Amino acid sequence: MLRRATLCLVGKARRHFHKEFSNFRWLCSAANEQNILKSDVLELDIPRTSVHEYFYERIEKFYKYTAVECSETGRKYSYEEVRCKARNLSKYLIKKLKLQKGDVVAILSPNIPEYMITCLGILEAGLVITSMNPIYTADEVYKQLVDSSAKVLITLNDGAISKTAKTAVKMTKKQLPIIVIKDKVSTQNTNLLDYMKISQIIGYLK
C-alpha cells in the first residue's frame, strides 16, 4: 500500500514538473522573441567565396592606387603590390616551406601594412591564421604556438618582438621557421627568413 502511494506521488510530481518546465520554456522563448531587434533593411547577400578571392576580384581597376599605408613611416603599397606580395608569400609557404592545406601559420605583429598582405597570402595558400598580440610574453606566445600547432611564425624585425618570438620558438623545442618583416633599416645579423625578400615583386615564385 505504501509503495503504491509513493509511486502515485512520484508520478504526480513528475507530471507537474514536465508541465511547469514546458511553461517555462515557452515563456523563455516568447521573452527572447520580444528582445530580438530586427532591421528594416534587407539582409545582405553574403557571397560564398573566400576572403582573398573576394578581395582580388574587386581590385583590378584600383591596381595603381594605394591600398595600405603606415602612418608612422610612410611605407605604403598599391593594390597591385599587395596582390603580388601576397601571392609570392603564398607560393613560398607551400613550395619552399612545404606547408599543407589546413596547416597553421602564426602572426606576431602590430597593425602594419604587411599584416594585411600576410593574412591574404596565408589564406590564398589554403592555410589557417592564428594571430597573437605583439605585447604577449614569450610564455604566452609559446603556449599559443603549441595550442595551435603552428608550423611557421611570421613576426616583426623589432628588438623586443623578435626576441620574444625567438625565445618562444626555442621553448617549443621544434625547428619552427621564423619569417621576419623588416619595417625599418636594421643592422642586425640574423639568420631569420627575410619577409621582404620572400614577397619581392619580381614575378611569382614558380
Summarize the structure in words:
The protein has helices spanning 2-34, 51-56, 79-96, 113-124, 138-148, 159-172, 195-198; strands spanning 66-69, 76-78, 104-108, 128-132, 150-156, 178-181, 193-194. It has 2 domains: 1-34; 84-198, 3-Layer(aba) Sandwich (Rossmann fold), CATH 3.40.50.980. It has 206 residues and is α/β, with parallel strands linked by helices. The longest helix has 33 residues, at 2-34. Mean pLDDT is 81; it is low at 185-191 and 201-206. The strands form 2 sheets. Strands 4-3-5-6-7 form a 5-stranded parallel sheet, sandwiched between helices.
Structural class: alpha/beta
**Tell me, what is the CATH class of the largest domain?**
Alpha Beta
Low-confidence stretches: 185-191, 201-206
Count of discrete alpha- or pi-helical segments spanning 4 or more residues:
7
Largest sheet report: 5 strands, parallel
CATH topology of the largest domain: Rossmann fold
Total domains: 2
Count of DSSP strands:
7
Mean of all residue-level pLDDT scores: 81
Measure the end-to-end span: 88 Å
